[in-house]
Amino acid sequence: MTRTNWIILVVCLAVAVGGYLLIGKPGMGDQPMKDRQAGLMKKIQTNPQSLTPAETLSRLEATVQERPDDPQPHFFIGEILRSQGRTSDAARAYQSALRRDGEYVPALLALADALVDLNNGAVSPEATRLFAKAYELDETQVRAGMWAAMGAAQAGDQAKAEQAMRYIYSRLPEDDPRRERFAPMIEALGSGEAAAPETE
Questions:
Q1: CA pair distance 28, 162, nearest whole angstrom
Q2: Which of 30, 99, 131, 182 has the smallest count of CB within 10 Å of its CB?
C-alpha cells in the first residue's frame, strides 16, 4: 500500500465510523478474500467516502497482515470496535497496538479510557499507569496527566496526586485558561477529595 493510499484509508476511517451510526452494521458479501481486498483497494482509490465500517475493518485487518509491526491499523480497529460499543474488543486491539509500539500515545490514551469505561468510571492502577505514561511522553496531553493524578488519589495516595497536579499546573502556559480550573482541583486533592477531571 502506498503512503497516499494509507493516508486516504486513515482519513476515510472517520467517515466510515460516522456511516456506521447512520446505516447500521452492513455485512460483507461472500467473495474470495483476494477479490474482496482488490475491490476495497479500488474503492479506496476511487471513492473512499463510500467505504462502510465493515469494509474499513476488513481493509484494516488486511493491513495488519501487510504491516505486522505497525501499531496504527490495530489502533484504528480499536476505534471502530469502540464506536460499535465493543469496548472489551477495542481494548484488546489497543493492547495489540502497544505490543508493537509501547510509546504510541493514541493507543495509550485509548486503552486507558477504555479501561476506565470497563471499570465503571474508576481509574484502575493500570489505567493510571497508561495515562501517566502518555503524559510523560507528550506533556500537551494535559487530560491524561489529570486522570493519572485522579488515579493516584483514588488509590489513596493524595500526596502523590497533589504533587502531580501541581507539576501539570506549573507546566501550563501563563495564558492557558485551564490554569483557572487547577486551583480548586488541587485544593480538593489536599482535602482528600478525588473528583474526575474535566475534559479539555
A1: 51
A2: 30
pLDDT tops 90 at residue 60? no
Report CA torsion sign: 190, 193, 196, 198.
Answer: negative
Report how far residue 108's alpha carbon sits from residue 114's, in angstroms, rounded to the nearest whole number.
10
Name the nearest CA neighbour of 96 among 83, 84, 85, 110: 110
Helices 71-83, 3-23: axis angle to 10 degrees equals 10
The pTM for the full model equals 0.71
- In this predicted model, what pLDDT tens digit does every residue of 66-100 receive, in sequence order? 888 999 999 999 998 999 999 999 999 999 999 99
The Cα–Cα gap between 136 and 113 comes to 17
Q: Which residue type sits at 190?
A: G
Look at residues 28, 86, 88 and name the one whose alpha carbon lies nearest to residue 53. Answer: 28
By the 8 A CB rule, do 185 and 165 touch?
yes
Half-sphere exposure of 129 (CA within 13 A, CB side): 5
The grid cell for 106 is: 493514541
Average pLDDT over residues 149-178: 89
Is the distance from CB of 132 to CB of 108 less than 8 angstroms?
no
Cα–Cα distance for residue pair 144/130, rounded to 1 Å = 8
